[in-house]
């Protein structure tokens, strides 16, 4: 983890030099040795992976830090809990094979890469060692063919893994190809990378996102206000000034952001950085993540209270993904909205 100072602005260096050793994590954050054995065991199932800029935002000596809880492997992950499965979204099989998923009207989701900058303990990706590159040149031609044959699609979503783990050159080439398909209007990028390595927002990325006729939307993934530090805010401001619409999706996680205060703070911090809350997802029932679960009733109560605390545009939509549905499923907050 000792990077030469000259490399600290290079996102690719930061991406390849993440902290992966549980003992080193505990040492750097002055955490008790009792956490080590379970961390090593759980990291054997799904490795520890933390980029340096994210590590710096974790409070030293606090085992309950909300950022630490998202990345620290725990013994609880290895306890089997009924109902928690390796593939809650039934995505393993056929429909991901060529890297293109067309489930919702008008938009197509592309899996650009399986790589991520950080390993979030609650992620279903923990059970899928996705190939690095799902979209090789042959598959890319097939994607373009598919899009040409589907004039009803007007939006392409870059997803992953984390699509911004891909080089700017590759992204620029792909966006250039997409911009030539006349019925496409929008490009959307779903990424946690600008939050965990803000150096990822390079000039060439901004150019790729704003240099074509397509309108660009970036949906970031931040779960806690402490993740939005000055570096993140600065990087995101450059995207916004260049005309990229910025939204955020979060996951509701026990011990991380399951309080009105934490959600309020997240919304306020996001908006100060020019980002609007979009979705707040209840946890997918992923094996190893049961200790993060917040019940639907608690989630509804939390968002109802949030509604009474914040302007409507700072309240995220509480939702879950149910396989086979034509959209995300919103959780109904109250039975009757009239008086
Ligand atoms: C979540 C998702 C989308 C995007 O849904 P929005 O409600 O438009 O944000 C699109 N396609 C697939 C397959 C998805 O899972
Ligand atoms: S960045 Fe997103 S896809 Fe990657 S591990 Fe975290 S939640 Fe999963």
From TrEMBL:
Keywords: 4Fe-4S, Iron, Iron-sulfur, Isomerase, Metal-binding, Pyridoxal phosphate, S-adenosyl-L-methionine. It catalyses: L-lysine = D-beta-lysine. InterPro entries: Aldolase_TIM, EpmB, Lys_aminomutase/Glu_NH3_mut, rSAM, rSAM_sf. SUPFAM superfamilies: Radical SAM enzymes. Residues 102-325 form the Radical SAM core domain. Its cofactor is pyridoxal 5'-phosphate; [4Fe-4S] cluster. Belongs to the radical SAM superfamily. KamA family. NCBIfam families: EFP_modif_epmB, KamA family radical SAM protein. This is L-lysine 2,3-aminomutase. It comes from Marinobacterium aestuariivivens. The lineage of its organism: Bacteria, Pseudomonadati, Pseudomonadota, Gammaproteobacteria, Oceanospirillales. The gene is epmB.
């Amino acid at each position: 983890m000792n990077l030469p100072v000259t490399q600290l602005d290079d996102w690719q260096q930061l991406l390849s030099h993440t902290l992966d050793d549980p003992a080193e994590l505990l040492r750097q954050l002055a955490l008790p040795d009792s956490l080590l054995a379970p961390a090593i065991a759980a990291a054997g199932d799904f490795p520890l992976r933390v980029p340096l800029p994210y590590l710096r935002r974790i409070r030293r000596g606090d085992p309950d830090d909300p950022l630490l809880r998202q990345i620290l492997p725990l013994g609880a992950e290895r306890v089997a809990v009924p109902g928690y499965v390796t593939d809650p979204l039934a995505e393993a099989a056929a429909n991901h094979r060529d890297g293109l998923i067309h489930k919702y009207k008008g938009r197509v989701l592309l899996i650009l890469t399986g790589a991520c900058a950080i390993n979030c303990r609650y992620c279903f990706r923990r059970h899928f060692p996705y190939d690095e590159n799902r979209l090789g040149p042959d598959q890319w031609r097939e994607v373009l063919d598919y899009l040409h044959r589907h004039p009803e699609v007007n939006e392409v979503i870059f997803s992953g893994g984390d699509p911004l783990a891909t080089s700017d050159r590759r992204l620029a080439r792909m966006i250039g190809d997409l911009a030539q398909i006349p019925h496409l209007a929008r490009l959307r990028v779903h990424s946690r990378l600008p939050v965990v390595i803000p150096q990822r927002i390079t000039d060439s990325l901004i150019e790729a996102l704003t240099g074509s006729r397509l309108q660009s939307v970036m949906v970031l993934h931040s779960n806690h206000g402490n993740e939005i530090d000055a570096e993140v805010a600065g990087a995101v401001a450059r995207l916004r000034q260049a005309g990229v619409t910025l939204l955020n999706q979060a996951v509701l996680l026990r011990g991380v952001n399951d309080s009105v205060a934490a959600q309020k703070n997240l919304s306020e911090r996001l908006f100060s950085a020019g980002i609007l809350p979009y979705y707040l997802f209840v946890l997918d029932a992923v094996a190893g993540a049961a200790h993060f679960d917040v019940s639907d009733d608690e989630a509804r109560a939390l968002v109802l209270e949030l509604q009474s605390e914040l302007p409507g545009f700072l309240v995220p939509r509480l939702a879950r993904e149910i396989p086979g549905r034509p959209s995300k499923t919103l959780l109904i907050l109250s039975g009757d909205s009239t008086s």
